[in-house]
């Protein structure tokens, strides 16, 4: 606002959500710096279809070896080391996960054919990710037990998942989540069939 003659010389962006519904992975990301028309840079519709990181660009160019996202006023530089911008991210959320298997379980209603698969995969999910979503995970498990009571297969898988979670919280590394589990049991647990 102070100097209207200043113009943006480039722009970069990052997509916080992946196509599979998970969030951006923690770590370093090399963003592509796009150069072009100042007005176009301000309009998100003109660049959100473009790759935002060097990794994404390489994946999209791999099959044909040519740029699949040409746009008149935005061109990523050919010199990969010169025109990039590195950021480091850490996602802190109790609602958005970076793990596709946990996401599959939490959204089990929208993906009913994969319930058994998602229940099995839960036991491969890193413990830190599970405890962040402990109440939601327990809700999902008890809802599966209640709503899929006609299928005995789910009962055993849910039981195994519950034993896995309880033993996980028994681990010294996650012991401070014991209070979260107790609060859930005494204040939020409402699955009459499971009770």
UniProtKB/TrEMBL annotation:
A GO MF term: guanyl-nucleotide exchange factor activity
PROSITE patterns (alphabetical): C2_DOCK
A Pfam entry, by short name: TPR_DOCK
BP GO annotations: cell migration; myoblast fusion; small GTPase-mediated signal transduction
InterPro entries: C2_DOCK-type_domain, C2_domain_sf, DOCK, TPR_DOCK
C2 DOCK-type domain mapped to chain residues: 1-92
Gene Ontology CC annotations of this record: cytoplasm; plasma membrane
Highest taxon listed in the record's lineage: Eukaryota
Family per record: Belongs to the DOCK family.
Protein name: DOCK5 protein
Native source species: Illadopsis cleaveri (blackcap illadopsis)
């Amino acid at each position: 606002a102070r100097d209207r003659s200043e113009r943006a010389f480039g722009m970069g962006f990052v997509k916080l959500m992946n196509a599979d519904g998970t969030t951006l992975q923690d770590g370093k990301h090399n963003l592509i710096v796009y150069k072009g028309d100042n007005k176009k840079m301000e309009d998100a519709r003109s660049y959100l279809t473009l790759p935002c990181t060097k990794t994404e660009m390489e994946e999209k160019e791999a099959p044909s070896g040519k740029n699949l996202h040409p746009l008149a006023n935005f061109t990523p530089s050919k010199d990969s080391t010169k025109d990039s911008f590195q950021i480091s991210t850490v996602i802190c959320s109790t609602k958005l996960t970076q793990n596709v298997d946990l996401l599959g379980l939490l959204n089990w209603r929208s993906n009913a054919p994969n319930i058994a698969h998602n229940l099995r995969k839960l036991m491969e999910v890193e413990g830190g990710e599970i405890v962040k979503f402990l109440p939601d995970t327990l809700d999902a498990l008890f809802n599966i037990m209640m709503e899929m009571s006609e299928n005995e297969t789910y009962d055993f898988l849910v039981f195994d998942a519950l034993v896995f979670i309880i033993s996980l919280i028994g681990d010294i590394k996650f012991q401070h989540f014991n209070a979260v589990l107790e609060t859930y049991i005494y204040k939020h647990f409402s699955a009459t069939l499971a009770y």
